[in-house]
Amino acid sequence: MELLRSNLSRVRIPEPTNRIYKHECCVSFETPRSEGGLFVDMTTFLAFGKDYVAWNYEKTGNPVYLHIKQTRKVVPEDRPSKKPTLLAIGVEGGFDNNEPQYEETHNIVILPDYVTFPFPSVELPEKVRLTVDAIIMAEGAERKEQLAAWTADKKHVSAYAMNLPQIGNDVIVPPSGWKCAKCDKKDNLWLNLTDGMILCGRKNFDGTGGNNHAIEHYKETSYPLAVKLGTITADLEAAELTMGMYCGSLDVFSYPEDDSVVDPLLAQHLAFFGIDFSALQKTEMTTAERELDQNTNFDWNRIQESGQDSELIHGPGYTGLANLGNSCYMAATMQVVFSTRSFNSRYYINQSLKKAFEMAPADPTVDLNMQLTKLAHGMLSGKYSVPALEKNDEENAPILTTNDALEFFLHFLDQVERVNGGSSALDPSRSFKFGIEERILCPSGKVGFNKRLDYILSLNIPLHEATNKGVFFFILSSSSETYTWSYMLTMYICGNSEALEAFHKLKAEKISEGKDVSSDEIVRPRVPLAACLASYSAPEEIQDYYSTAMKAKTTALKTAGLTSFPDYLVLHMRKFVLEEGWVPKKLDVYIDVPDIIDISYMRSKGLQPGEELLPDGVPEAEVESSNPVANEDIVAQLVSMGFNHLHCQKAAINTSNVGVEEAMNWLLAHMDDPDIDAPVSQGAHGNEVDQSKVDTLLSFGFQEEIARKALKASGGDIEKATDWIFNNPDASVSSDMDTSTSSSKPTSDNIELPDGGGRYRLFGIVSHMGTSTHCGHYVAHVLKDGRWVIFNDNKVAASVNPPKDMGYLYFFERLDS
Known about the structure:
Elements: H1 2-6, E1 38-41, E2 47-49, H2 53-60, E3 64-72, E4 102-110, E5 115-119, H3 126-137, H4 141-145, E6 189-192, E7 198-200, H5 213-221, E8 225-228, H6 236-243, E9 252-254, E10 259-261, H7 266-271, H8 287-292, H9 298-303, H10 328-337, H11 341-349, H12 353-359, H13 368-380, H14 405-419, E11 434-441, E12 447-454, E13 457-459, H15 469-479, H16 485-494, H17 498-512, E14 526-528, H18 529-537, E15 540-547, E16 552-562, E17 568-573, E18 576-579, E19 583-586, E20 590-592, E21 596-598, H19 620-624, H20 632-640, H21 645-654, H22 660-669, H23 691-699, H24 704-713, H25 718-727, E22 745-746, E23 759-769, E24 777-784, E25 787-792, E26 795-798, E27 807-814
Parallel strand pairs: 13-17, 14-20
Antiparallel strand pairs: 1-2, 1-3, 3-4, 4-5, 6-7, 6-8, 8-9, 9-10, 11-12, 11-16, 12-22, 15-16, 17-27, 18-19, 21-23, 23-24, 23-27, 24-25, 25-26
Helix pairs in contact: 10-14, 11-13, 12-13, 15-16, 15-17, 20-21, 21-22, 23-24, 24-25
């Protein structure tokens, strides 16, 4: 005990602001359940596994640790499950899943000789007891920093619910047998809570769903709330569990708030139309349940290889990553990235855990180099990869929300580049980087060049290049009496786009009849990857291009090529595009991707002999408008509301004079800015936007000019910028272009990039299931040791039929010449 008392000065009672780590080692994936338990430094509150705690003692000299060990309890197999009170997994009140229970023991350990004192004990100094109690009672920093076990978002009470007007009290809605008032749809029906109109819901991107009659009714009447018929249940407990909120709040949608909401007075609002809430039975899937039902469709089964007799794999390089609730996009991306030689060498082969720990700052949990080394050793060493006792059914785990794998990939590489300080010897992200050169030919015969750097090649999908047009025709002819065999055969011989139009016509007819197109009638177009690459390199006309040679606007011709070929080429398929009316749509298409591709023809050639560069210069109008000018109408309206005139000018300028609402939102968000009272800048820096955010919007299929304007109008927020684009379909920007500025990260000819031949081999696929990049599920397939392997979160298995034609991101490795 004297030894402990002599080290009391190294014991610190944690304060509320201290981050306490007690669930996972900060340099490995050891936990209190590991064989050696976990050691918590009672000075820094960092946690270390048995094999790593000595490193911390050597580095810091901190001798006193709280040792936490959890041992599995023996419990009856038939123990009753806890009743869930919240739709969640892995959190208090969530689903139990009969997870094993553990008994936790604590000891005080003093290094370097591992002298041990049991806890609790009245003989321990009070300072030690207070410290240990605080550590045990605290919520671990690991849990706070996790993406969190998935929990359904709680819906907010609608601002329109409490004072909702209701008219037409002679309207009596029957308890069943509903039909849309404007078409024959009998499912996906919504009851408007103001006038009792029953109308069908929105049309999905693939033509299924409703016919938009409910939302069109809102646009005509401004009646705000509607409830989905068939989703309401008198089972109050089930209702509370499903939404975690008020009973009777299932699938109430607020059109002005553009969100699912809670209506606390739903029973009262339904009674107005003669509906007895207690007599209703649930007959329709809620919106959330429809999202969950995505698990059973073809995409999910095909991409995850459900039902295949696949061999589970374990060992070095075959370690799965647990899904923290919505982290599948990270898991899939990291499995592919750490399969590359560059990341493998940087963070595993050439860097030990101890070396990374010694180089890390006082808190290694905030050091990216340390944490990537920890991840690499965890994934590649095989230490945490053990034989699975049985196959689980994780491929059907519901994931409602996630993030975009492409966005994460670009952000991740950007952070790796930053932390490595641009050192070509250390930076593994360089293996993905390449140069792009855009060549602009104006009618004067002179040329200009834009150059930039990128990590991905984002490709449009030219559906008119589909190779299976004939297949569409015969399937249509056998499934619909509308088309004759002779007509279908004629279209097959002609091989034109009428087939696709015929398919959409058939689908529209069935939808108008209240029917859905069956799965065996749906045939997806197959587009060769070569056609996508050719589309990228194809000449593109630029309207209203300002030629510095002609000193006038004209039509120029732009082509693009690569100035270097990276070690690893990542192709992003733009499956999410905008239809007419700015409606987002996911292309239902297969991409035929060969194992080997050759893009040698895509290398840019630069300035050719006999060609002349366009002279430097900018349009006169651009020079005159370089100083920001606020729209006086917007400023006057804001000033009339009581805002400061200078502040109103800044708000208008920083939202590109889009409108009063946007300017007021900016103003309210920046009232406390330290430079809010500074004079309006005469430079253009206020118009600068983060290029990585521009790239993200480009990956969604938006035009670059529109993306930039949207980001300026939304203060750089990607989500708000996307909403701005959808809400401003008539937005336009000047298409003036000048070759003196780059459309992405500028580059120069002398920058050192990896380069080589143009032949590549496919080695990785990140596939996406779901209607949006921000919902659904991501899975990775990686070519390892000569065979394809599926990484589906923590499931690792030999791939029987890798979905090469359904990828979202394709990873290619350059072949040595």
